[in-house]
Amino acid sequence: MTGVPGVGKSTVVKTAFKQAEEKGIDVNFDLVNFGDMMLKTAEKEGLVKHRDEMRQLPVEQQHSIQKHAAAEIRKMADSGDVILDTHASIETPNGFIPGMPEWVLREMKPDVIVVLESRPEDVNKFRKKDLGDDFRRREVDNIEGIERHQSVNRSIAMAYSVFTGTPIKLIWKPEGTLPRAAEELLGVLSA
Amino acid sequence: MTGVPGVGKSTVVKTAFKQAEEKGIDVNFDLVNFGDMMLKTAEKEGLVKHRDEMRQLPVEQQHSIQKHAAAEIRKMADSGDVILDTHASIETPNGFIPGMPEWVLREMKPDVIVVLESRPEDVNKFRKKDLGDDFRRREVDNIEGIERHQSVNRSIAMAYSVFTGTPIKLIWKPEGTLPRAAEELLGVLSA
Amino acid sequence: MTGVPGVGKSTVVKTAFKQAEEKGIDVNFDLVNFGDMMLKTAEKEGLVKHRDEMRQLPVEQQHSIQKHAAAEIRKMADSGDVILDTHASIETPNGFIPGMPEWVLREMKPDVIVVLESRPEDVNKFRKKDLGDDFRRREVDNIEGIERHQSVNRSIAMAYSVFTGTPIKLIWKPEGTLPRAAEELLGVLSA
Protein backbone atom coordinates (compact mmCIF):
# COMPACT_ATOMS: atom_id res chain seq x y z
CA MET A 1 0.00 0.00 0.00
CA THR A 2 1.70 3.15 -1.18
CA GLY A 3 0.90 6.84 -1.47
CA VAL A 4 2.43 10.19 -0.55
CA PRO A 5 2.34 11.17 3.14
CA GLY A 6 -1.07 12.54 3.98
CA VAL A 7 -2.95 10.95 1.07
CA GLY A 8 -4.98 8.87 3.55
CA LYS A 9 -3.60 5.34 3.31
CA SER A 10 -4.55 4.25 6.83
CA THR A 11 -8.01 5.83 6.59
CA VAL A 12 -8.75 3.95 3.38
CA VAL A 13 -7.52 0.69 4.91
CA LYS A 14 -9.64 1.14 8.04
CA THR A 15 -12.71 2.02 5.99
CA ALA A 16 -12.20 -1.04 3.77
CA PHE A 17 -12.00 -3.24 6.89
CA LYS A 18 -15.23 -1.69 8.22
CA GLN A 19 -16.97 -2.29 4.87
CA ALA A 20 -15.79 -5.88 4.93
CA GLU A 21 -17.27 -6.36 8.38
CA GLU A 22 -20.60 -4.83 7.33
CA LYS A 23 -20.73 -7.05 4.27
CA GLY A 24 -19.66 -10.15 6.15
CA ILE A 25 -16.53 -10.50 4.01
CA ASP A 26 -13.69 -12.21 5.86
CA VAL A 27 -10.49 -10.20 5.56
CA ASN A 28 -7.77 -10.77 8.07
CA PHE A 29 -4.64 -8.76 7.52
CA ASP A 30 -1.69 -7.78 9.62
CA LEU A 31 -0.86 -4.12 9.17
CA VAL A 32 2.83 -3.43 8.85
CA ASN A 33 4.44 -0.05 8.39
CA PHE A 34 7.67 -0.20 6.40
CA GLY A 35 9.00 2.99 7.98
CA ASP A 36 8.47 1.54 11.46
CA MET A 37 10.06 -1.74 10.44
CA MET A 38 13.05 0.10 8.95
CA LEU A 39 13.37 2.27 12.06
CA LYS A 40 13.24 -0.79 14.31
CA THR A 41 15.93 -2.44 12.18
CA ALA A 42 18.10 0.68 12.19
CA GLU A 43 17.75 1.11 15.95
CA LYS A 44 18.56 -2.56 16.51
CA GLU A 45 21.71 -2.09 14.42
CA GLY A 46 22.60 1.01 16.41
CA LEU A 47 22.48 3.34 13.41
CA VAL A 48 19.89 5.87 14.56
CA LYS A 49 18.07 6.99 17.69
CA HIS A 50 15.24 8.94 16.09
CA ARG A 51 13.18 8.64 12.92
CA ASP A 52 14.45 11.96 11.55
CA GLU A 53 18.00 10.64 11.46
CA MET A 54 17.01 7.98 8.92
CA ARG A 55 17.09 10.48 6.04
CA GLN A 56 20.62 11.49 6.97
CA LEU A 57 22.12 8.01 6.68
CA PRO A 58 24.47 7.21 3.81
CA VAL A 59 22.76 5.58 0.85
CA GLU A 60 24.42 2.19 1.41
CA GLN A 61 23.12 1.94 4.95
CA GLN A 62 19.61 2.92 3.85
CA HIS A 63 19.73 0.06 1.33
CA SER A 64 20.89 -2.43 3.89
CA ILE A 65 18.12 -1.41 6.29
CA GLN A 66 15.51 -1.74 3.54
CA LYS A 67 16.72 -5.22 2.76
CA HIS A 68 16.63 -6.47 6.34
CA ALA A 69 13.19 -4.97 6.91
CA ALA A 70 11.92 -6.60 3.69
CA ALA A 71 13.18 -9.99 4.83
CA GLU A 72 11.36 -9.53 8.14
CA ILE A 73 8.11 -8.69 6.34
CA ARG A 74 8.37 -11.61 3.95
CA LYS A 75 8.59 -13.90 6.96
CA MET A 76 5.36 -12.43 8.31
CA ALA A 77 3.62 -12.73 4.95
CA ASP A 78 4.58 -16.38 4.74
CA SER A 79 2.34 -17.13 7.69
CA GLY A 80 -0.61 -14.78 7.04
CA ASP A 81 -1.97 -11.90 4.93
CA VAL A 82 -0.08 -8.63 5.29
CA ILE A 83 -0.83 -5.09 4.22
CA LEU A 84 2.43 -3.20 4.05
CA ASP A 85 2.14 0.54 4.49
CA THR A 86 5.09 1.95 2.57
CA HIS A 87 6.24 4.43 -0.06
CA ALA A 88 6.68 3.87 -3.77
CA SER A 89 9.50 6.42 -3.54
CA ILE A 90 11.11 8.32 -0.68
CA GLU A 91 12.23 11.92 -0.97
CA THR A 92 15.75 12.38 0.38
CA PRO A 93 18.04 15.44 0.20
CA ASN A 94 19.76 13.78 -2.77
CA GLY A 95 16.54 12.98 -4.62
CA PHE A 96 13.88 10.32 -4.85
CA ILE A 97 14.94 6.81 -3.98
CA PRO A 98 12.77 3.78 -4.69
CA GLY A 99 10.94 2.34 -1.68
CA MET A 100 11.21 -1.05 -3.33
CA PRO A 101 14.41 -1.22 -5.40
CA GLU A 102 15.13 -4.37 -7.36
CA TRP A 103 16.76 -6.30 -4.50
CA VAL A 104 13.93 -5.48 -2.08
CA LEU A 105 11.24 -6.22 -4.64
CA ARG A 106 12.64 -9.60 -5.59
CA GLU A 107 12.68 -10.65 -1.93
CA MET A 108 9.35 -9.12 -0.99
CA LYS A 109 7.33 -10.40 -3.98
CA PRO A 110 4.15 -8.44 -3.27
CA ASP A 111 0.89 -9.78 -4.75
CA VAL A 112 -0.43 -6.33 -5.59
CA ILE A 113 1.01 -2.84 -5.27
CA VAL A 114 -1.67 -0.27 -4.51
CA VAL A 115 -0.90 3.35 -5.34
CA LEU A 116 -3.34 5.66 -3.60
CA GLU A 117 -3.55 9.03 -5.32
CA SER A 118 -5.46 12.20 -4.56
CA ARG A 119 -5.60 15.79 -5.63
CA PRO A 120 -2.44 17.61 -4.43
CA GLU A 121 -4.68 20.26 -2.86
CA ASP A 122 -6.46 17.66 -0.74
CA VAL A 123 -3.20 16.12 0.41
CA ASN A 124 -1.85 19.54 1.28
CA LYS A 125 -4.96 20.42 3.30
CA PHE A 126 -4.70 17.19 5.23
CA ARG A 127 -1.03 17.74 5.97
CA LYS A 128 -1.69 21.19 7.39
CA LYS A 129 -4.53 20.03 9.62
CA ASP A 130 -3.63 16.60 10.76
CA LEU A 131 0.03 15.73 10.62
CA GLY A 132 2.56 16.18 13.40
CA ASP A 133 4.62 19.29 14.05
CA ASP A 134 7.68 17.95 12.31
CA PHE A 135 5.85 17.40 9.10
CA ARG A 136 4.08 20.71 9.30
CA ARG A 137 7.33 22.57 9.55
CA ARG A 138 8.80 20.83 6.55
CA GLU A 139 6.07 20.52 4.02
CA VAL A 140 3.23 23.01 4.31
CA ASP A 141 1.81 24.37 1.07
CA ASN A 142 3.90 22.26 -1.18
CA ILE A 143 1.28 21.60 -3.86
CA GLU A 144 3.84 21.43 -6.64
CA GLY A 145 6.03 19.08 -4.62
CA ILE A 146 3.09 16.78 -3.93
CA GLU A 147 2.18 16.67 -7.59
CA ARG A 148 5.76 15.81 -8.53
CA HIS A 149 5.99 13.12 -5.87
CA GLN A 150 2.77 11.51 -7.10
CA SER A 151 4.01 11.53 -10.68
CA VAL A 152 7.29 9.97 -9.57
CA ASN A 153 5.42 7.31 -7.58
CA ARG A 154 3.32 6.29 -10.55
CA SER A 155 6.34 5.99 -12.86
CA ILE A 156 8.33 4.03 -10.34
CA ALA A 157 5.42 1.67 -9.64
CA MET A 158 5.23 0.82 -13.34
CA ALA A 159 8.93 -0.04 -13.30
CA TYR A 160 8.29 -2.33 -10.30
CA SER A 161 5.66 -4.19 -12.28
CA VAL A 162 8.02 -4.89 -15.17
CA PHE A 163 10.41 -6.67 -12.80
CA THR A 164 7.88 -8.85 -11.08
CA GLY A 165 4.69 -8.71 -13.11
CA THR A 166 2.99 -7.47 -9.94
CA PRO A 167 -0.29 -5.70 -10.72
CA ILE A 168 -0.30 -1.99 -9.95
CA LYS A 169 -3.67 -0.85 -8.64
CA LEU A 170 -4.11 2.90 -8.95
CA ILE A 171 -6.86 4.10 -6.61
CA TRP A 172 -8.01 7.65 -7.11
CA LYS A 173 -9.32 9.24 -3.94
CA PRO A 174 -10.08 12.94 -4.19
CA GLU A 175 -11.95 14.47 -1.24
CA GLY A 176 -15.42 13.05 -0.82
CA THR A 177 -14.74 9.65 -2.40
CA LEU A 178 -13.48 7.70 0.59
CA PRO A 179 -16.22 5.02 0.48
CA ARG A 180 -15.63 4.29 -3.20
CA ALA A 181 -11.85 4.20 -2.76
CA ALA A 182 -12.22 1.82 0.20
CA GLU A 183 -14.49 -0.41 -1.88
CA GLU A 184 -11.86 -0.57 -4.60
CA LEU A 185 -9.27 -1.58 -2.04
CA LEU A 186 -11.63 -4.15 -0.55
CA GLY A 187 -12.06 -5.62 -4.03
CA VAL A 188 -8.30 -6.15 -4.18
CA LEU A 189 -8.03 -7.50 -0.62
CA SER A 190 -10.81 -10.04 -1.10
CA ALA A 191 -9.69 -11.15 -4.59
CA MET B 1 2.66 -2.05 -31.60
CA THR B 2 0.88 -0.91 -28.48
CA GLY B 3 -1.89 1.48 -27.52
CA VAL B 4 -5.09 1.51 -25.48
CA PRO B 5 -8.11 -0.30 -26.96
CA GLY B 6 -9.76 1.94 -29.51
CA VAL B 7 -6.77 4.17 -30.19
CA GLY B 8 -6.66 2.90 -33.76
CA LYS B 9 -3.67 0.57 -33.96
CA SER B 10 -4.94 -1.56 -36.83
CA THR B 11 -6.13 1.46 -38.82
CA VAL B 12 -2.70 3.07 -38.57
CA VAL B 13 -1.01 -0.18 -39.61
CA LYS B 14 -3.29 -0.62 -42.62
CA THR B 15 -2.81 2.99 -43.67
CA ALA B 16 0.96 2.64 -43.40
CA PHE B 17 0.83 -0.46 -45.61
CA LYS B 18 -1.24 1.42 -48.17
CA GLN B 19 1.20 4.33 -48.15
CA ALA B 20 4.07 1.89 -48.63
CA GLU B 21 2.34 0.42 -51.68
CA GLU B 22 1.70 3.86 -53.18
CA LYS B 23 5.31 4.85 -52.65
CA GLY B 24 6.65 1.54 -53.92
CA ILE B 25 8.29 0.77 -50.57
CA ASP B 26 8.59 -2.93 -49.91
CA VAL B 27 7.21 -3.80 -46.48
CA ASN B 28 6.22 -7.35 -45.81
CA PHE B 29 5.00 -7.99 -42.29
CA ASP B 30 3.01 -10.70 -40.62
CA LEU B 31 0.38 -9.23 -38.34
CA VAL B 32 0.08 -11.00 -35.03
CA ASN B 33 -2.31 -10.12 -32.23
CA PHE B 34 -0.91 -10.94 -28.80
CA GLY B 35 -4.39 -11.28 -27.28
CA ASP B 36 -5.36 -13.80 -29.97
CA MET B 37 -2.12 -15.69 -29.48
CA MET B 38 -2.62 -15.73 -25.71
CA LEU B 39 -6.23 -16.86 -26.14
CA LYS B 40 -5.17 -19.63 -28.50
CA THR B 41 -2.53 -20.74 -26.00
CA ALA B 42 -4.99 -20.62 -23.10
CA GLU B 43 -7.62 -22.57 -25.06
CA LYS B 44 -5.05 -25.13 -26.09
CA GLU B 45 -4.10 -25.56 -22.44
CA GLY B 46 -7.78 -25.92 -21.52
CA LEU B 47 -7.80 -22.86 -19.26
CA VAL B 48 -10.55 -20.77 -20.86
CA LYS B 49 -13.36 -21.06 -23.39
CA HIS B 50 -13.95 -17.38 -24.05
CA ARG B 51 -11.80 -14.26 -24.22
CA ASP B 52 -13.59 -12.63 -21.29
CA GLU B 53 -12.46 -15.40 -18.97
CA MET B 54 -8.80 -14.45 -19.55
CA ARG B 55 -9.02 -11.52 -17.12
CA GLN B 56 -10.35 -13.80 -14.39
CA LEU B 57 -7.40 -16.20 -14.45
CA PRO B 58 -4.98 -16.25 -11.53
CA VAL B 59 -1.91 -14.10 -12.05
CA GLU B 60 0.47 -17.06 -12.33
CA GLN B 61 -1.52 -18.60 -15.17
CA GLN B 62 -1.66 -15.28 -16.99
CA HIS B 63 2.14 -15.10 -16.79
CA SER B 64 2.57 -18.61 -18.07
CA ILE B 65 0.27 -17.93 -21.02
CA GLN B 66 2.15 -14.73 -21.84
CA LYS B 67 5.42 -16.62 -21.87
CA HIS B 68 4.24 -19.39 -24.17
CA ALA B 69 2.67 -16.91 -26.56
CA ALA B 70 5.89 -14.87 -26.61
CA ALA B 71 7.91 -17.95 -27.49
CA GLU B 72 5.51 -18.68 -30.35
CA ILE B 73 5.89 -15.14 -31.70
CA ARG B 74 9.65 -15.16 -31.45
CA LYS B 75 9.67 -18.26 -33.65
CA MET B 76 7.62 -16.41 -36.25
CA ALA B 77 9.86 -13.36 -36.11
CA ASP B 78 12.92 -15.52 -36.67
CA SER B 79 11.69 -16.34 -40.16
CA GLY B 80 10.16 -12.99 -41.23
CA ASP B 81 9.11 -9.48 -40.17
CA VAL B 82 6.33 -9.38 -37.60
CA ILE B 83 4.14 -6.59 -36.28
CA LEU B 84 2.80 -7.62 -32.91
CA ASP B 85 -0.45 -5.97 -31.90
CA THR B 86 -0.35 -5.93 -28.11
CA HIS B 87 -0.74 -3.84 -24.96
CA ALA B 88 1.96 -2.04 -23.03
CA SER B 89 -0.16 -2.75 -19.94
CA ILE B 90 -3.36 -4.67 -19.33
CA GLU B 91 -6.03 -3.50 -16.92
CA THR B 92 -7.15 -6.34 -14.62
CA PRO B 93 -9.41 -6.20 -11.55
CA ASN B 94 -6.27 -6.17 -9.40
CA GLY B 95 -4.58 -3.38 -11.34
CA PHE B 96 -2.38 -2.81 -14.35
CA ILE B 97 -0.08 -5.66 -15.31
CA PRO B 98 2.72 -5.28 -17.84
CA GLY B 99 2.01 -6.70 -21.29
CA MET B 100 5.71 -7.41 -21.61
CA PRO B 101 7.15 -8.16 -18.16
CA GLU B 102 10.87 -8.83 -17.85
CA TRP B 103 10.69 -12.53 -18.72
CA VAL B 104 8.53 -11.95 -21.80
CA LEU B 105 10.63 -8.99 -22.94
CA ARG B 106 13.92 -10.83 -22.71
CA GLU B 107 12.55 -13.64 -24.87
CA MET B 108 10.69 -11.47 -27.34
CA LYS B 109 13.51 -8.93 -27.96
CA PRO B 110 11.44 -6.49 -30.04
CA ASP B 111 13.34 -4.16 -32.40
CA VAL B 112 11.07 -1.21 -31.67
CA ILE B 113 8.12 -0.68 -29.34
CA VAL B 114 5.57 1.69 -30.82
CA VAL B 115 3.20 3.42 -28.40
CA LEU B 116 0.27 4.91 -30.28
CA GLU B 117 -1.40 7.70 -28.31
CA SER B 118 -4.40 9.87 -28.94
CA ARG B 119 -6.61 12.32 -27.13
CA PRO B 120 -8.71 10.44 -24.54
CA GLU B 121 -11.82 12.07 -26.02
CA ASP B 122 -11.08 10.63 -29.46
CA VAL B 123 -10.49 7.16 -28.07
CA ASN B 124 -13.71 7.37 -26.09
CA LYS B 125 -15.68 8.44 -29.18
CA PHE B 126 -14.28 5.56 -31.17
CA ARG B 127 -15.09 3.08 -28.43
CA LYS B 128 -18.71 4.21 -28.32
CA LYS B 129 -19.18 4.04 -32.07
CA ASP B 130 -17.12 1.18 -33.28
CA LEU B 131 -16.28 -1.41 -30.71
CA GLY B 132 -18.28 -4.52 -29.85
CA ASP B 133 -21.13 -4.71 -27.35
CA ASP B 134 -18.95 -6.13 -24.61
CA PHE B 135 -16.59 -3.27 -24.75
CA ARG B 136 -19.34 -0.72 -24.97
CA ARG B 137 -20.95 -2.01 -21.82
CA ARG B 138 -17.72 -1.89 -19.87
CA GLU B 139 -15.97 1.24 -20.91
CA VAL B 140 -18.20 3.94 -22.30
CA ASP B 141 -17.37 7.50 -21.28
CA ASN B 142 -14.28 6.63 -19.37
CA ILE B 143 -12.18 9.62 -20.36
CA GLU B 144 -10.33 9.72 -17.07
CA GLY B 145 -9.64 5.98 -17.25
CA ILE B 146 -8.28 6.30 -20.79
CA GLU B 147 -6.00 9.14 -19.74
CA ARG B 148 -4.70 7.10 -16.81
CA HIS B 149 -4.15 4.03 -18.97
CA GLN B 150 -2.17 6.04 -21.52
CA SER B 151 -0.01 7.55 -18.80
CA VAL B 152 0.61 4.07 -17.38
CA ASN B 153 1.51 2.76 -20.84
CA ARG B 154 4.06 5.45 -21.44
CA SER B 155 5.75 4.90 -18.06
CA ILE B 156 5.84 1.16 -18.48
CA ALA B 157 7.23 1.43 -22.01
CA MET B 158 10.15 3.48 -20.71
CA ALA B 159 10.88 0.78 -18.14
CA TYR B 160 10.87 -1.78 -20.99
CA SER B 161 13.51 0.23 -22.83
CA VAL B 162 15.86 0.27 -19.84
CA PHE B 163 15.89 -3.54 -19.81
CA THR B 164 16.53 -4.07 -23.48
CA GLY B 165 17.59 -0.73 -24.92
CA THR B 166 14.68 -1.12 -27.33
CA PRO B 167 13.67 2.23 -28.84
CA ILE B 168 10.25 3.48 -27.77
CA LYS B 169 8.49 5.26 -30.61
CA LEU B 170 5.68 7.47 -29.35
CA ILE B 171 3.26 8.26 -32.16
CA TRP B 172 0.72 10.95 -31.45
CA LYS B 173 -2.48 10.50 -33.44
CA PRO B 174 -5.29 12.85 -32.45
CA GLU B 175 -8.32 12.87 -34.75
CA GLY B 176 -7.50 14.10 -38.23
CA THR B 177 -3.83 13.10 -38.24
CA LEU B 178 -4.06 9.50 -39.47
CA PRO B 179 -1.92 10.04 -42.62
CA ARG B 180 0.89 11.65 -40.64
CA ALA B 181 0.76 8.99 -37.93
CA ALA B 182 0.87 6.24 -40.57
CA GLU B 183 3.85 7.92 -42.19
CA GLU B 184 5.67 7.93 -38.87
CA LEU B 185 4.98 4.24 -38.48
CA LEU B 186 6.09 3.57 -42.05
CA GLY B 187 9.35 5.34 -41.27
CA VAL B 188 9.93 2.86 -38.46
CA LEU B 189 8.86 -0.19 -40.51
CA SER B 190 11.11 0.66 -43.42
CA ALA B 191 14.11 1.67 -41.30
CA MET C 1 23.39 15.32 -15.02
CA THR C 2 20.56 14.97 -17.47
CA GLY C 3 18.03 17.18 -19.20
CA VAL C 4 16.71 17.88 -22.68
CA PRO C 5 18.99 19.85 -25.03
CA GLY C 6 18.71 23.53 -24.23
CA VAL C 7 17.39 23.14 -20.69
CA GLY C 8 20.56 24.74 -19.34
CA LYS C 9 22.61 21.94 -17.82
CA SER C 10 26.02 23.56 -18.25
CA THR C 11 24.79 26.95 -17.06
CA VAL C 12 23.43 25.42 -13.86
CA VAL C 13 26.66 23.53 -13.28
CA LYS C 14 28.80 26.65 -13.80
CA THR C 15 26.56 28.69 -11.51
CA ALA C 16 26.74 26.01 -8.81
CA PHE C 17 30.55 26.06 -9.04
CA LYS C 18 30.55 29.85 -8.70
CA GLN C 19 28.27 29.67 -5.67
CA ALA C 20 30.57 27.06 -4.14
CA GLU C 21 33.53 29.39 -4.58
CA GLU C 22 31.67 32.32 -3.03
CA LYS C 23 30.66 30.22 -0.06
CA GLY C 24 34.09 28.66 0.32
CA ILE C 25 32.71 25.17 -0.30
CA ASP C 26 35.27 22.85 -1.82
CA VAL C 27 33.88 21.11 -4.90
CA ASN C 28 36.27 19.66 -7.39
CA PHE C 29 34.63 17.88 -10.30
CA ASP C 30 35.74 16.81 -13.72
CA LEU C 31 33.12 17.67 -16.31
CA VAL C 32 32.53 14.92 -18.85
CA ASN C 33 30.10 15.02 -21.73
CA PHE C 34 28.72 11.60 -22.62
CA GLY C 35 27.99 12.62 -26.20
CA ASP C 36 31.61 13.75 -26.66
CA MET C 37 32.89 10.56 -25.06
CA MET C 38 30.65 8.45 -27.30
CA LEU C 39 31.72 10.42 -30.37
CA LYS C 40 35.38 9.98 -29.45
CA THR C 41 34.81 6.25 -28.99
CA ALA C 42 32.93 5.96 -32.29
CA GLU C 43 35.60 7.91 -34.16
CA LYS C 44 38.34 5.80 -32.60
CA GLU C 45 36.51 2.69 -33.79
CA GLY C 46 36.15 4.19 -37.26
CA LEU C 47 32.36 4.19 -37.21
CA VAL C 48 31.62 7.87 -37.79
CA LYS C 49 33.32 11.05 -38.91
CA HIS C 50 30.79 13.58 -37.67
CA ARG C 51 28.43 13.83 -34.69
CA ASP C 52 25.31 13.82 -36.90
CA GLU C 53 26.15 10.35 -38.17
CA MET C 54 25.79 8.93 -34.65
CA ARG C 55 22.00 8.87 -34.90
CA GLN C 56 22.17 6.89 -38.11
CA LEU C 57 24.14 4.00 -36.68
CA PRO C 58 22.46 0.63 -36.20
CA VAL C 59 21.12 0.07 -32.70
CA GLU C 60 23.71 -2.59 -31.82
CA GLN C 61 26.60 -0.29 -32.60
CA GLN C 62 25.06 2.52 -30.58
CA HIS C 63 24.87 0.13 -27.61
CA SER C 64 28.44 -0.94 -27.99
CA ILE C 65 29.62 2.66 -28.12
CA GLN C 66 27.61 3.52 -25.01
CA LYS C 67 29.21 0.65 -23.16
CA HIS C 68 32.77 1.55 -24.05
CA ALA C 69 32.19 5.19 -23.19
CA ALA C 70 30.66 4.19 -19.83
CA ALA C 71 33.71 2.07 -19.01
CA GLU C 72 35.95 5.04 -19.80
CA ILE C 73 33.95 7.30 -17.47
CA ARG C 74 33.91 4.80 -14.65
CA LYS C 75 37.69 4.75 -14.78
CA MET C 76 37.76 8.53 -14.42
CA ALA C 77 35.26 8.46 -11.54
CA ASP C 78 37.39 5.93 -9.70
CA SER C 79 40.14 8.52 -9.31
CA GLY C 80 38.06 11.70 -8.71
CA ASP C 81 34.61 13.29 -8.67
CA VAL C 82 32.93 13.44 -12.06
CA ILE C 83 29.85 15.26 -13.33
CA LEU C 84 28.61 13.48 -16.42
CA ASP C 85 26.63 15.62 -18.82
CA THR C 86 24.32 13.16 -20.56
CA HIS C 87 20.75 12.37 -21.58
CA ALA C 88 18.21 10.32 -19.69
CA SER C 89 16.88 9.35 -23.11
CA ILE C 90 17.97 10.05 -26.68
CA GLU C 91 15.54 10.72 -29.50
CA THR C 92 16.39 8.64 -32.58
CA PRO C 93 14.40 8.17 -35.79
CA ASN C 94 13.12 4.88 -34.34
CA GLY C 95 12.11 6.35 -31.00
CA PHE C 96 13.52 7.16 -27.59
CA ILE C 97 16.40 5.02 -26.44
CA PRO C 98 17.69 5.06 -22.88
CA GLY C 99 20.88 7.04 -22.30
CA MET C 100 21.70 4.61 -19.52
CA PRO C 101 20.25 1.18 -20.35
CA GLU C 102 20.67 -1.62 -17.84
CA TRP C 103 24.15 -2.68 -19.01
CA VAL C 104 25.49 0.88 -18.97
CA LEU C 105 23.87 1.67 -15.63
CA ARG C 106 25.28 -1.37 -13.88
CA GLU C 107 28.80 -0.46 -15.01
CA MET C 108 28.51 3.26 -14.44
CA LYS C 109 26.90 3.10 -10.94
CA PRO C 110 26.18 6.83 -10.60
CA ASP C 111 25.79 8.23 -7.06
CA VAL C 112 22.95 10.54 -8.04
CA ILE C 113 21.06 11.13 -11.27
CA VAL C 114 20.01 14.76 -11.65
CA VAL C 115 17.11 15.50 -14.00
CA LEU C 116 17.00 19.18 -14.82
CA GLU C 117 13.55 20.26 -16.00
CA SER C 118 12.13 23.53 -17.22
CA ARG C 119 9.05 24.89 -18.90
CA PRO C 120 8.95 23.69 -22.53
CA GLU C 121 8.47 27.32 -23.62
CA ASP C 122 11.71 28.36 -21.92
CA VAL C 123 13.65 25.49 -23.48
CA ASN C 124 12.23 26.35 -26.89
CA LYS C 125 13.19 30.01 -26.53
CA PHE C 126 16.73 29.06 -25.57
CA ARG C 127 17.02 26.68 -28.51
CA LYS C 128 15.98 29.36 -30.97
CA LYS C 129 18.39 31.93 -29.60
CA ASP C 130 21.45 30.07 -28.53
CA LEU C 131 21.96 26.71 -30.13
CA GLY C 132 23.87 25.94 -33.30
CA ASP C 133 22.47 26.01 -36.81
CA ASP C 134 21.97 22.28 -36.97
CA PHE C 135 19.78 22.28 -33.94
CA ARG C 136 17.86 25.30 -35.06
CA ARG C 137 16.97 23.72 -38.33
CA ARG C 138 15.70 20.55 -36.70
CA GLU C 139 13.89 21.58 -33.61
CA VAL C 140 12.53 25.09 -33.62
CA ASP C 141 9.14 25.62 -32.03
CA ASN C 142 8.74 22.09 -30.87
CA ILE C 143 6.98 22.82 -27.58
CA GLU C 144 4.98 19.60 -27.68
CA GLY C 145 8.07 17.56 -28.50
CA ILE C 146 9.99 19.11 -25.60
CA GLU C 147 7.14 18.35 -23.21
CA ARG C 148 7.04 14.74 -24.40
CA HIS C 149 10.80 14.35 -24.11
CA GLN C 150 10.76 15.68 -20.54
CA SER C 151 7.96 13.30 -19.57
CA VAL C 152 9.90 10.40 -21.11
CA ASN C 153 13.05 11.43 -19.26
CA ARG C 154 11.31 11.47 -15.92
CA SER C 155 9.75 8.03 -16.43
CA ILE C 156 12.98 6.52 -17.61
CA ALA C 157 14.93 8.01 -14.70
CA MET C 158 12.55 6.33 -12.26
CA ALA C 159 13.20 3.00 -13.97
CA TYR C 160 16.95 3.63 -13.60
CA SER C 161 16.51 4.09 -9.86
CA VAL C 162 14.72 0.77 -9.45
CA PHE C 163 17.73 -1.05 -10.91
CA THR C 164 20.37 0.62 -8.84
CA GLY C 165 18.63 2.44 -6.00
CA THR C 166 20.32 5.60 -7.29
CA PRO C 167 18.55 8.73 -6.04
CA ILE C 168 16.84 10.75 -8.76
CA LYS C 169 17.09 14.47 -8.08
CA LEU C 170 14.52 16.44 -10.04
CA ILE C 171 15.53 20.09 -10.27
CA TRP C 172 12.90 22.46 -11.58
CA LYS C 173 14.38 25.47 -13.31
CA PRO C 174 11.87 27.69 -15.09
CA GLU C 175 13.18 31.04 -16.32
CA GLY C 176 14.32 33.32 -13.52
CA THR C 177 15.21 30.58 -11.02
CA LEU C 178 18.81 29.83 -12.01
CA PRO C 179 20.32 30.73 -8.60
CA ARG C 180 17.89 28.48 -6.72
CA ALA C 181 18.38 25.60 -9.18
CA ALA C 182 22.16 25.95 -8.87
CA GLU C 183 21.86 25.91 -5.08
CA GLU C 184 19.90 22.68 -5.25
CA LEU C 185 22.60 21.17 -7.42
CA LEU C 186 25.31 22.42 -5.08
CA GLY C 187 23.48 20.73 -2.23
CA VAL C 188 23.78 17.43 -4.07
CA LEU C 189 27.41 17.99 -5.12
CA SER C 190 28.54 18.84 -1.61
CA ALA C 191 26.53 16.10 0.13
Explained architecture:
- 3 copies of one chain form a homotrimer.
- Chain A is of the alpha/beta class and 191 residues long.
- Chain A has a domain at 9-32 and 84-189: P-loop containing nucleotide triphosphate hydrolases (Rossmann fold), CATH 3.40.50.
- Helices cover 55% and strands 15% of the residues of chain A.
- The first copy, chain A, has 8 helices and 6 strands.
- Chain A has helices spanning 9-23, 34-44, 59-78, 102-108, 120-130, 133-139, 143-164, 178-189, and strands spanning 29-33, 81-85, 89-92, 95-98, 113-117, 168-172.
- In chain A, the strands form 3 sheets. Chain A has a two-stranded parallel sheet. In chain A, strands 3-4 form a two-stranded antiparallel ribbon.
- In chain A, helix 1 packs across helix 8 and helix 2 (34-44) crosses helix 3 (59-78).
- The longest helix of chain A has 22 residues, at 143-164.
- The radius of gyration of chain A is 16 Å and the shape is globular.
- Chain A starts with 8 loop residues before the first helix and ends with a helix.
- The model of chain A has no long low-confidence stretch (mean pLDDT 90).
- The A-B interface holds A 111-114, 154-155, 158-159, 161-170, 172, 187-188, 191 and B 59, 63, 89, 92-98, 100-103, 105, 144, 148, 151-152, 155-156, 158-160, 162-163.
Describe how the helices and strands are arranged.
3 copies of one chain form a homotrimer.
Chain A: H1 9-23, E1 29-33, H2 34-44, H3 59-78, E2 81-85, E3 89-92, E4 95-98, H4 102-108, E5 113-117, H5 120-130, H6 133-139, H7 143-164, E6 168-172, H8 178-189
Parallel strand pairs in A: 1-2, 5-6
Antiparallel strand pairs in A: 3-4
